[in-house]
Amino acid sequence: MAAEPHDSPVAASLWRAYYTEVSDRWYRLHEGRATDPGELEREVAADTGEYLAPPGGLLLVARYEGEPVGTAGVRLADATTAELKRVYLRPRARGRGGAALLVTAAEDAARALGAERMVLDTRNDLVEARALYARLGYAESAPHNDHAYADHWFTKALTATSKPWEAREVSAVSPSPARRPAGG
To answer: Is 31 left (phi over 0), alpha (psi -120 to 50) or beta?
Structure first.
C-alpha cells in the first residue's frame, strides 16, 4: 500500500473502474441499463480528485505483485474531520480482506493529517460497503453533506491505536483461483 498522485495514470484507471461499476450498478437497478458512455466520460472527467492531493488529502493504492488492485482516498473536511473517498477493489481482489486493509490504512493516513474522526457517505444499494463500514466500527450518522446519491452517512472516531499506514501488509488481496471474488 502506498500513496499515489491523484492524477496519475494508475489513479485514473482505478477511478474509471470504480465509477463505471457503481454507476452501472445504479442504472441497472433503477433503469435496467448500463451507464450511457457519454455520461460516463463526462462524470469521470468532472471529478478530477484534486481534493485527494496533499496537503489536505491523500490517495492510497493497494498493489498485488506490482499490479494496482485497489484504492482509498482521504480528504480533510476540516481541521479534525477527514472524509473517506473512493474505496474500491478490483473484482478479482475481493473477498480476502483487502477492503478492510484499505480503510484501515486510510484511517491511519487521516490520523497523520490530524483528523480525529472519519466520515463517509454511500448508497443504499452498496450493501457490501455498508456491511464493511459497520464491521470496521463506523456508525450511521446524520448527513454531513447533500450529495444527490448519498443514502447513508457514517462516522467513526479515530484513535491512535493503529500502526502507521506505510507499514500495512497487503498480502490479503492476493488473487486465489480457489475462491470466487465477492464484495468487500
So the answer is: alpha
Which one, of 62, 60, 80, lies nearest residue 70 by Cα? 62
The pTM for the full model equals 0.83
Tens of pLDDT, residues 63-110:
987 899 999 999 999 999 999 999 999 999 998 899 999 999 999 999
In which order are the strands placed within the sheet that holds 139-140? 2-3, 57-64, 67-78, 81-89, 117-122, 152-157, 139-140
Q: Which of 99, 103, 61, 62 is nearest to 83 (CA)?
A: 103
d(CA 63, CA 22): 21
